[in-house]
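Hypothesis: this fold can be encoded by more than one sequence.
Test: take the C-alpha cells below, design a sequence, compare later.
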C-alpha cells in the first residue's frame, strides 16, 4: 500500500498514528504538497478533490478522506479502534468533532496564507475559531469519560486536532478553562505514536 502524505497535515497524522498504534507494515509514504488553488497533480490523480491523505491499495481503487482510510486500515489490522455499537456511535461522533476542529483550523490557515491581505475578512476567521471554541468546550464537558476510556479513533483524532491547534494556533491558548481536556492531552501526547508523528515545517 502507498500513502500520499504531507508531514504537516493533521489528517495524515491521524492515519500515521493509527499505523503506529496497530503495528501495520508494508505501507510506503509518498510526499505531496499543494493548496486548494494549486493542488498537487499526483494527489489529483488519486483523489479528484485534490486532498490528502490518499491510500493506494491492492484490492481496489484509491481510498481518500482520513476517516475512510482509518476505517479501512483498522479493518486490515483487526485493531478494534472502531468498537462495536453502542460505543461506536460515540467514537464516530468524537472523531467527527475532532475533524470539524481541523476543518475550521485549516481554513483559518488558508485565509492568511493563500488569500491576499486586502481580501481577508477577520470576522470570517473568528467565525471559524468560534466553531473550534464550541467543539473544545463540548470535548471538555461531554466527552471526558470517553476520552479516558479504551483507545479508539475518537481519541486519536482528538489528539491530532489538539496537536494541530498547538502547531498553527498556539496563540489562541485553547487550554484555558479546559483543565480536563488539557490533562488528557498531556498524557495522550506522550504516547510514542504521537511523539513520532509530530508535524514538521
Amino acid at each position: 500500500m502507498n500513502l500520499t502524505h504531507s508531514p504537516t497535515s493533521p489528517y495524515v497524522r491521524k492515519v500515521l498514528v493509527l499505523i503506529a498504534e496497530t503495528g501495520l507494515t508494508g505501507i510506503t509514504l509518498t510526499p505531496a504538497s499543494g493548496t486548494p488553488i494549486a493542488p498537487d497533480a499526483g494527489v489529483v490523480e488519486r483523489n479528484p478533490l485534490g486532498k490528502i491523505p490518499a491510500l493506494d491499495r491492492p484490492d481496489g481503487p484509491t481510498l481518500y478522506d482520513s476517516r475512510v482510510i482509518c476505517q479501512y486500515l483498522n479493518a486490515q489490522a483487526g485493531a478494534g479502534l472502531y468498537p462495536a455499537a453502542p460505543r461506536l456511535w460515540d467514537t464516530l461522533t468524537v472523531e467527527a468533532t475532532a475533524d470539524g476542529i481541523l476543518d475550521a483550523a485549516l481554513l483559518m490557515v488558508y485565509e492568511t496564507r493563500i488569500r491576499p491581505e486586502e481580501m481577508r475578512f477577520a470576522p470570517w476567521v473568528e467565525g471559524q475559531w468560534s466553531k473550534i471554541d464550541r467543539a473544545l468546550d463540548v470535548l471538555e464537558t461531554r466527552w471526558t469519560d470517553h476520552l479516558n476510556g479504551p483507545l479508539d479513533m475518537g481519541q486519536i483524532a482528538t489528539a491530532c486536532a489538539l496537536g494541530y491547534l498547538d502547531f498553527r494556533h498556539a496563540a489562541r491558548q485553547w487550554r484555558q478553562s479546559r483543565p480536563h481536556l488539557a490533562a488528557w492531552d498531556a498524557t495522550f501526547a506522550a504516547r510514542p505514536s504521537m511523539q513520532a508523528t509530530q508535524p514538521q515545517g
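The mean pLDDT is 96. The CA atoms of residues 23 and 162 lie 23 Å apart.
Hypothesis status: open.
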